[in-house]
Amino acid sequence: MTALGVLLALLMAQHTARVAALDGRKVWNLCVVALFAALAGSRLLLVALNWSELRQHPMWLLGLAMIHHPLLACFGALTAGVAAVLFGRRQRLPLWSTADALAAPVALGLAFEQVGALLAGSGYGVEAGTGIAARWAVTYTHTLAALWSGAPLEVALHPVQAYAALGFLALSIILLFWLPCRRQSGDAAGLLLLGAGVVVFVTEFWRDTEGRGSLLGGALDGPQIAAFFLVLAGGWVLLERKGT
Question: What are the b/e assignments for 70-84, b being 16+ CB within 10 Å?
Fold first, then answer.
């Protein structure tokens, strides 16, 4: 599902590049470079953190693609962003216009990634209980969901990944239609940061905190703190700038 999301995001980026008056070929190449940087960065971090175990069980390397963790996602996004900026400068792509063109595709890719997480049991939700949420709760039964993601089996859980997927999909649609109407370069990118922060912050209330950290006596977790800074960054980017 993540691979499908990446493919659709690449195709959408060709459309948004034209709307932003950018060279579609350069934007395509930038996306490919950023994608490989994200994959390489997150996998290398995973290997570094688990080097002693992997030395004893080298065949586990074949299963690393199944590991899903906020720290890996954050580090992958960071390496992708650095690679994209460096490649964009080399190709003389305008920073803010390029970020605007990639905003809607990134949100679309995140939506599909969350659908994949739902199917795999990664980033699972809290127990749905017996209320109205039990009507659409998801119950994992396959042992791989427990082995790779730690998902509890035979327990009705909130499909929080679906909540996040719907949020990112709605954000992608909004960004797609807002791109031609932006007041200044960077507006779409700023809205992506702000909207993604809101989606992550809200949906984390229904996501199990196992392996995600806990702050303020369990009131917040690690991704919610990151979401807070995303909202601040989005607001800063949306501020009106002179000469744009």
Answer: bbbbebbbebbeebb
